[in-house]
DNA sequence: TCTGTTCGTTGCATCATATGCAACGCCCGT
DNA sequence: ACGGGCGTTGCATATGATGCAACGAACAGA
């Protein structure tokens, strides 16, 4: 809506790909160098871009600080955190907390596994939306038309042979998840890793976040997965109760 | 330099404090509501702000994704990471990697302690600049006038009784660090935690990053700290060599 | 149910402001 | 010494951002 701001902001994803010099930025924006310069200067003043010694621009430090503050201000996260830690203490595996926003699912908290096997994931990182247990949980709660709309738009990368292959299969999976109130990812993202997840609901019953436990194939047998499931669901329910209690829902 | 962009970007730190509605944003920017609306809309289109159900604005998901991509593109981080993991494997404690940028020091990587005691820190979080070992290392490498300028500008919060109290003491400490080529934080941030750190240098000898090991007081005796020191320095030197080799310094 | 208030939204006329141009200066390589 | 590339600056133009005023919806109180 505001051309100037629009152009300025377009610079950020561009720099996220890697450092770029003034000319490159101007070209990719389709504007004159002097214009690009002024935009970059403004971004620089706000700390969003950083100028390295070779004069090329990179994304700047304030970006991290902002993302950091933002994530710390999420009330679900604050309430959930101690419970995630406890869950981790009980099962030892990696615990994730995720939310849905604007067609993306992203991790907002994580407690690392006690075991040497580590999952590659990071707070703020967009989740593999078509396969992750938390993603299924969050999307399953959308209205039927929304679910369809989103499912159609997604890509379905085959991380493994057990990844969800297409929109049809995904919608079917979402229906199951919606029905049963929990979700799994059985080697759909990484061959050797299974996850079990459960939804966290606000006072109005809508899913506001989802948590999951990720455990390596070798360690967790089918029965173990079942124990994990009950544990996970119990934790999620506890968080839901606490969240609904302390936190008035912002409108239904 | 660009008023419109400047105003738009001013909204971000404002929202970092917590969600705000249109009126609040307009007031704090000192502009008309319609103006604020257009700015927010533009930010929204780029995913930097998110509108929650109660219509208030929050910082958005893309912010995280951007910060994420940015940190992953740092080449020091990429090179250092395996060595940090190995260092962690050898000593078991939390390992941090940090860089200096625009008067801030921030963590860009972290390997968690094997022990249950966890430090509160997060990638992207600004470091307690006056006390952390990594901060001392990074600042010690600045030119003398720069050091003085920065030291004057800083606050010196007394996290503990052993925190660095003022600019004078800080500059003195930096001189020591500069001289000896390593740094410590002995309970200056958290009473019970000690850190040892060493600098990572580029081909031109300038410090490009710093790493540190953080260990709880009770576990690490004076002699143990010494073993950690040699281990830490060795790791840092290894990374320095690798970084200088593969990576032509961007100008001296 | 009606009324007053608050808050987000829209269209529009005005002019502040972002834009592109052209010229300059700098660094680097030849 | 010379030429090319790149970042930077000042300036005239008109584009596009701004504030206003009016509308509409949601809400509270009577």
Instruction: Describe the global form of chain A.
Output: elongated
Order of strands, main sheet of chain A, comes to 4-3-7-6-5
Q: Structural class of the helices, strands and pairings of chain A?
A: alpha+beta
Proportion of beta-strand residues of chain A = 15-25%
What is the element layout, followed by pairings?
2 copies of one chain form a homodimer.
Chain A: H1 3-16, H2 22-29, H3 33-45, E1 49-51, E2 57-59, H4 61-72, H5 75-91, E3 94-101, E4 104-111, H6 133-140, H7 144-153, H8 167-180, E5 183-186, E6 193-201, E7 207-216, H9 222-246
Antiparallel strand pairs in A: 1-2, 3-4, 3-7, 5-6, 6-7
Helix pairs in contact in A: 1-3, 2-3, 5-9, 6-8, 7-8
Chain A binds a DNA duplex (30 and 30 nucleotides) through residues 2-4, 21-23, 31-35, 37-38, 55.
Structure description:
The structure is a homodimer of 252-residue chains. Chain A is of the alpha+beta class and 252 residues long. In chain A, 48% of the residues lie in helices and 18% in strands. Chain A has 9 helices and 7 strands, in the order αααββααββαααβββα. The first copy, chain A, has a 5-stranded antiparallel β-sheet, sandwiched between helices. In chain A, strands 1-2 form a two-stranded antiparallel ribbon. In chain A, strand 1 and strand 2 form a beta hairpin. In chain A, helix 6 crosses helix 8. Chain A is elongated. The relative contact order of chain A is 0.11. Chain A binds a DNA duplex (30 and 30 nucleotides) through helix 3.
Task: Describe what is shown at a glance.
Two copies of one chain form a homodimer. By secondary structure, chain A is α+β, with helices and mostly antiparallel strands.
């Amino acid at each position: 809506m505001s051309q100037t701001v629009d152009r300025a902001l377009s610079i950020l994803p561009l720099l996220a790909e890697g450092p770029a010099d003034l000319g490159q930025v101007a070209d990719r924006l389709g504007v004159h160098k002097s214009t690009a310069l002024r935009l970059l200067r403004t971004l620089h003043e706000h700390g969003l871009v950083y100028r390295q010694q070779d004069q090329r621009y990179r994304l700047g430090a304030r970006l991290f600080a902002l993302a950091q503050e933002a994530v710390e201000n999420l009330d679900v996260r604050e309430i959930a955190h101690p419970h995630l830690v406890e869950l981790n203490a009980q099962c030892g595996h990696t615990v994730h907390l995720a939310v849905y926003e604007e067609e993306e699912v992203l991790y907002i908290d994580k407690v690392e596994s006690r075991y040497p096997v580590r999952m590659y994931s990071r707070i703020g990182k967009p989740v593999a939306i078509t396969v992750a247990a938390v993603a299924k949980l969050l999307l399953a709660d959308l209205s039927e038309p929304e679910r369809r709309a989103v499912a159609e738009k997604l890509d379905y990368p085959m991380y493994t042979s057990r990844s969800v292959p297409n929109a049809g299969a995904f919608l079917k999976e979402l229906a199951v998840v919606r029905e049963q109130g929990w979700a799994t990812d059985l080697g759909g993202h990484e061959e050797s890793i299974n996850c079990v997840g459960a939804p966290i609901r606000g006072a109005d019953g809508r899913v506001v976040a989802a948590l999951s436990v990720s455990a390596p194939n070798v360690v967790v047998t089918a029965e173990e997965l079942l124990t994990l499931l009950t544990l996970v669901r119990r934790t999620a329910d506890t968080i839901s109760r606490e969240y609904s209690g302390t936190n008035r829902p912002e409108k239904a």
